[in-house]
Amino acid sequence: MISDPVNGLARRHGSILKAEAVGGAAAAGHFTKLLTATAQSKPFSFSISGIEYDLIYRTDADSQSLGQQGFAFCFNKTTGAFVPISYAGTDTVLDTLVAGGVSAATSIGRFLFLAGHTIVPTWTGTARHNVTANLQKMAVWVRGGAYSRTFKITLTKANGTTTVASYKTVSASYPTLLDTTDLLTSDADYQKKVNDRVNAYNGEVTKWIGTAAADIAPESIAEKLRLALVAAGVTGCSVNNSTVLIDNSLYVEVKAEDGGDGSLIRGVGNGILAADLVSVIHYHGKVVKVKPQKSNSLDAFYLEAYAKDGISTGVTEVAWRESSGYKMQPNTAFCIATIEAGTLYIGGTPAKLQTLSGVTVPTFSPNPVGDDLTNPLPTLFGNRIDYLGSFQDRLVIGSGTIILFSKPGKYFDWFRSSVLTLPDDDPIEVFSLGAEDDIISSSVTYDRNLVLFGKNRQYTVSGRQPITPKTASIVGVTAHEGATDADPISSGNFVFYAQKQGEGAARKASLHQIQAGALADTPESSDLSQQLSTYIGGTPVQLVALDTPKFVGLRTTASRTTLYAYSYLDGPGNAERLFDSWSKWTWDEKVGHVIGITKSPDDTGLLIYMIKEGKDYANANKWWVSCEQFTLITSKSTYPYLDSLRPYSAIGGVGSYVNPYNYPTEAAIAFTSTGYRPFMGAPITGLTQFLTDYTTGTDGWVGIGYQALVTPTNPYIKDKAGNAILDGRLTLGRVRVSIADTGGAYIDVTSSQGTKTVTDFNGRILGDSSNLIGYQPIVTTSIYGNIGKETRQCSYSIKARTWLPLTITAVEWVGQYFNRTQRV
């Protein structure tokens, strides 16, 4: 029944079968295993290219060893058909997901991400700086020359021993003095010889100026140093302009000195003191470490040489950019899925999915800069992923209480882009102080904020401004334990969550509501089921909410054929709750056992996914998966009030659950309200006679019956203060039930003597114009039920008939009160 403040208490409409498909053979005991495996299955709704889909997946471990069977189902809500699923073969990560169950799911764009309880994200580390291939490549840039300077290169081996090569430039002045002492003054040509000697000397001095200038040229010094290195036994030496290049695996570092302040020569090996102490010529791809100044080494970073022309390799003119010294490449994190050409493809890695589907899939990005100390791995690696979501165009990944936000728009980029700066679009990793023992597994978006639900507490991430690495924080706001068995949901201005209470057979569930408090960022929570005792049994599994009409559905482990329904109506501004009610929707096992519930495409009803077993058209045991559409409309239905409704013409075919070998005894056939004989019908056992009686019987609809009843609370007398008077006796004599658009009803009375039907109304009223033979009357009237019992010793129920509508608009009663208070 559905309580509507406008129409009254109305029988819910029967569900309409949207689709069903044979899941496979059902040998003895197989369906029981399937029921056990899917008890905690949950749905996830997503869209690709404007088409809405539901994915129903198993959240528990594969305790029944069913493998991929029953692990997941996909439904196209736009076309109303189940989507085939293709799993990647030889996929360890996917096999782990299937074996351990899904722990979290989200979707962005055309891709769906599925984390697993037993999937542990992995990565591969590759040294780029501290490896021989990089260490052996060094350069010494001679930036300038000077007279009488000793330029020195010191090469260091891994064991600490060194090889030194040096060259001293010539002096600026000619090194030899003019000497004429060997000339005899007695010589007649003495003066001429002196003049010749002076002229020759001046010529040498002039020549020396050019020689000395050439000797201090950087290119000359570089070549002299190369020759010195070769002379010292160093191989792999070359010169490019004024740069000495060394490529020798025996050496790991170079040091260059110019005999002065070091400004004339620069050694670029594997560690430098500042980012500007690099050379203009080096090996393309060379990585150097800018040594840290702090003791914890967190200020170290790496530079990589890139060919300036973008083409050259080896030794070339280079530009230096910040890079990584230790590459950390994520390998696995979660499974990835997409829909292509009407098929859902699931792979354990981007490469697996791309191979399987043919769709280009983005890959996980390695760290572009730093190393495992300065740009460490996100916490999710080596730990289980408990939460997946999206917020402000960032993929959000949670492990415990540590939350990672990817780069905006780059959902597989989880590392900082620089260790020197902190751009606003960098990834963010945050956690809430004091909540290290919690596990965040769910979230909702509420009032622009991301509300995270952990097992012990709830947290918010402010969304009023774009989140950045400098401003992001997680703030604990409430402490409601056990609120994540069923994922919380938001609807309108509220957030709803469910909790479990008690253990074993005494386990029950409760529904709660969070709304904005009197103070900013101080939400208030209220129990919406506090008036119920054991009405909602079991552990919460799933919540589903509709905003129009206001409705929350709660699914629990107590029954796979039951949905607890909460309806409400608030006043303007949500200042006051004007109306609320609880009801329980039940359906027959032949309709199916629920595995997931989502909103219908028009957001006014529910899609309930179920599994069921029976015989197919070839009389073979099979199991089916189906999608049933339920509506919250309370006005009279066009269709008969039967579940799993389908036209008669649709039964008996290949894949149909309702067929001659599998007619459920609870099934019936009836006309619609606009059919040949509105709401006339017959049980399925009378199908042959029905088709004989009505030549248009094939226009009927077939479905499975369900019970619809309400048991009103018995009345009691109150005193002037509004308190119930418990002494004395109140006898309930008769009830008057006002009904509208109703085809019939029963009134049953239950007491210690059992249950007795006191009213059996078939909708026919003598003299009413609608009371025609061969037609089912739908009337608005009042019916009476004689109770005649004390209110604490009986209860009465108002029940619908067969597949006919029932709407109760009012209940009135007549009785007697006997007060036997003893006077003293």
Question: What does this protein look like?
Answer:
The chain is mainly beta. The protein has seven helices and 56 strands. The strands form 14 sheets. It has a five-stranded antiparallel sheet, with no helix packed on it. A five-stranded mixed sheet has the order 8-26-25-10-9. The longest helix is centred in the N-terminal third of the chain and has 26 residues, at 190-215. The chain starts with a strand and ends in a 6-residue tail after the last strand. The mean pLDDT is 92.
Architecture blueprint of SSEs:
Elements (H helix, E strand, L loop, with lengths): L1 E3 L3 E3 L5 E10 L4 H8 L4 E7 L2 E7 L14 E5 L4 E3 L1 E3 L4 H9 L1 E7 L2 E6 L5 E6 L4 H4 L1 E6 L7 E8 L4 E7 L21 H26 L2 H14 L5 E4 L2 E5 L3 E7 L7 E4 L2 E2 L8 E3 L3 E4 L10 E7 L7 E9 L2 E7 L2 E6 L2 E5 L2 H8 L29 E5 L2 E6 L2 E4 L22 E4 L8 E7 L2 E6 L3 E4 L13 E4 L10 E3 L2 E8 L6 E8 L8 E4 L12 E7 L4 E6 L5 E9 L6 E10 L6 E7 L5 E11 L5 E11 L11 E5 L19 E4 L10 E3 L3 H7 L7 E4 L4 E2 L18 E14 L2 E7 L2 E8 L17 E12 L3 E7 L6 E12 L6
Parallel strand pairs: 8-26, 19-21
Antiparallel strand pairs: 1-2, 2-56, 3-45, 4-5, 5-6, 6-7, 9-10, 10-25, 11-24, 12-16, 12-18, 13-14, 13-17, 15-16, 20-23, 21-22, 22-23, 25-26, 27-28, 28-29, 29-30, 31-32, 32-33, 33-34, 35-36, 36-37, 37-38, 39-40, 40-41, 41-42, 43-44, 44-45, 46-49, 47-48, 47-49, 50-55, 51-54, 51-56, 52-53, 52-55
